[in-house]
Design a protein that fits this description.
- With about 600 residues, this protein is of the alpha/beta class.
- It contains 19 helices and 28 strands.
- The protein is globular, with a radius of gyration of 31 Å.
Length: about 600
């Protein structure tokens, strides 16, 4: 184009604040980037004819002189574009207000730190954000702290240190006094002797640390010099077991430190050892006493909402997260010895060991009341994610939660294995955590809180129904779902729900009643005050067929391979049957009705 025609297309370029370059490689056009996207203050460009030439690139930046963010995360030519900027003599015409240059993780694996720093240094008077990979391969001749001191407007620094074992966050904060956010990662253990305490101004509000250890003197510096200024503090203690850490600094010191963390609006601390690492120390206190003493230290004087997350899926970390809305989350990575219940027959649900150390889900140890006034009874929400094929685990953990958490509002168990079993109980059908304020308004006891029970890829066993009667008498909705990737239950579906006076709806997935190989199932609904009703359920596409039948008709047909499900409930209970995304069929007082597509979709979503 000639200059006049081209200028017309970029007449509003001075208002653009962000420039994002997508996959600029010949012939590459992913389906989600088919159109160039124009936003009010953002331009996202694709160059599917290949990379921009130097002339084109500088011309483009001249048309967009006021961009604050240059996003090259998805660009395939980042190094070239950065080199073009570095070599350009149009410094007074391009990137006049640049604050941040974003590089993708892929390009940062190569030796790009030098050119990235050189470009940012060129625009150091406006740059506010830096993301630095401090590596020996590029920085032998660069004194980085001295270089950083020239960025007078730097407010955000992301710094990965794999070069200097003596460098600490205090050195960076001393060099960059205007930082609001510091994200610091290092593989080096920091000895106490290298720590120089500083008098920090009030600029720093967010600190994110990923380090191998936090020794005692380091903790003192964090507590006294940094925490009083912070709104957000994230500590990721890598390659260190929490119990080894507590043993190294002492339980009292650990408790005092977490008590200081509780004064930060949002605080997170995690101990993330290697998956196969062994614990190095033993303690006179039980593991539960130690963990709950730390949890107790992080509580605030306000009314709190407590959550616990258990998992064994390749992680053994422990963590606490305290949020500004007074929610305290406890993550606990389980080892096999902490949850596995040895049964003589792993497939037998009837073997329920009341005297076994793990019969309630995980090992329960006595807590030392002088170390912690909080135990499992504090939790309002429990989520369990397991990669284990033991079919007893869902009910083991459910009973563990119900017996130990009298104020439980929500429980979720999900198995990531071939069985794909899951159990969710809560106050709503979506079984997600609502706003903490909404949760606080709920009743304080499990018996009144739990209104919804949802199971997936499993039939309601006698044990589950007994737990529901004892701990969840207010149940209003019972959802029984199935997924294609889950195993078909080998036990026939039978549920006696007559004890639940508040029960309003029972929702069934036909795959749970008939199995995967059968297209037909029979449903018998038994009522305490009137005759039973019988229905024939047939999988169809795109619709599900439900017709009324009789016991005589069922008995007269050759149906040896056809399952019959039995539901016992009170007269007013509605039965909803669905299959995949087919229309949901409602059985209510002997009448069969079909919901419209929107209603069916909403009800099917509850199985997810």
């Amino acid at each position: 184009m000639n200059n006049t025609e081209r200028d017309r297309y970029f007449q509003y370029g001075v208002f653009t604040k962000t420039l994002q370059i997508y996959q600029d490689i010949v012939g590459y056009l992913p389906h989600y980037l088919r159109d160039t996207i124009y936003l009010r203050d953002t331009i996202s460009l694709e160059n599917t004819d290949g990379e921009y030439t130097k002339e084109e690139w500088i011309m483009l930046l001249r048309y967009l002189p006021n961009i604050q963010v240059l996003n090259l995360v998805f660009s395939r030519n980042t190094s070239k574009y950065m080199q073009y900027i570095l070599e350009s003599t149009d410094t007074d015409k391009i990137l006049l207000n640049i604050k941040s240059i974003l590089l993708g993780a892929y390009i940062k694996t190569f030796d790009t730190t030098g050119i990235y720093l050189a470009v940012c240094y060129k625009y150091r008077t406006t740059i506010t954000d830096l993301d630095i990979e401090y590596k020996a391969s590029e920085l032998n001749n660069i004194k980085l702290p001295i270089l950083l001191s020239h960025f007078n407007n730097l407010t955000l620094l992301k710094f990965n240190n794999s070069y200097d074992p003596q460098l600490t966050i205090f050195d960076l904060l001393d060099t960059c006094p205007h930082l609001i956010t510091l994200n610091y990662t290092t593989e080096y253990a920091i000895p106490d002797s290298t720590i120089n305490r500083i008098k920090l101004n009030s600029c720093l509000k967010e600190l994110i640390l990923s380090i191998p250890a936090i020794p005692k003197h380091y903790i003192t510096c964090l507590s006294d010099d940094l925490i009083p200024h912070l709104d957000i503090l994230t500590l990721d203690i890598i390659k260190t077991d929490v119990f080894d850490w507590v043993e190294s600094i002492g339980l009292n010191n650990a408790v005092k430190f977490l008590d200081r963390l509780s004064t930060v609006k949002t605080a997170f601390i995690r101990w993330n050892p290697d998956r196969n690492s062994d614990r190095q120390t033993t303690s006179t206190e039980s593991d539960h006493t130690i963990m709950f003493a730390l949890l107790n230290a992080m509580k605030r004087s306000k009314k709190m909402y407590y959550q616990v997350y258990y998992s064994n899926c390749g992680i053994v970390h422990k963590s606490f997260k305290l949020t500004s809305d007074d929610s305290l989350q406890f993550d606990y990575g389980l080892k096999l010895s902490e949850y596995h219940l040895p049964l003589t027959n792993q497939n037998s649900e009837q073997e329920w060991h009341d005297d076994g150390p793990l019969s309630h889900g995980i090992r329960t140890e006595l807590l030392n009341p002088s170390a912690s006034t909080i135990g499992l009874e504090a939790f309002h929400y429990m989520q369990v994610i397991m990669c284990d094929n033991d079919p007893n685990l869902p009910l083991n953990f459910l009973r563990y939660a119900l017996m130990n958490c009298p104020n439980l509002q929500q429980f979720s168990f999900t198995a990531f294995n071939k069985s794909a079993l899951s159990i969710c109980i809560g106050n709503d059908t979506e079984t997600i955590i609502k706003n903490v304020r909404e949760r606080r308004d709920l009743s304080s006891t499990t018996q009144e809180n739990i209104k919804i029970v949802k199971i997936k890829n499993m039939v309601p066993s006698k044990i589950l129904l007994e737990l529901m009667v004892e701990y969840m008498p207010a149940t209003e909705v019972f959802l029984c779902g199935a997924t294609d990737n889950g195993d078909s239950p080998t036990v026939l579906f039978e549920a006696d729900l007559t004890a639940f006076s508040h029960m309003d709806l029972v929702q069934l997935d036909l795959r749970l009643l008939s199995g995967k190989k059968q297209k037909t199932a029979y449903l018998e609904i038994q009522f305490p005050e009137k005759d039973s009703e019988y229905y024939c359920l047939v999988k169809g596409f795109p619709k599900l067929n439900v017709t009324k039948t009789t016991l005589e008709q069922i008995s007269s047909r050759e149906n040896g391979n056809i399952r019959k499900a039995i539901v016992k409930c009170r007269n007013h209970v509605k039965i909803a049957v669905c299959y995949l995304c087919s229309m949901v069929i409602i059985i209510n007082d002997g009448e069969i009705s079909e919901l419209d597509h929107k209603q069916s979709s909403n009800m099917s979503f509850r199985f997810i």
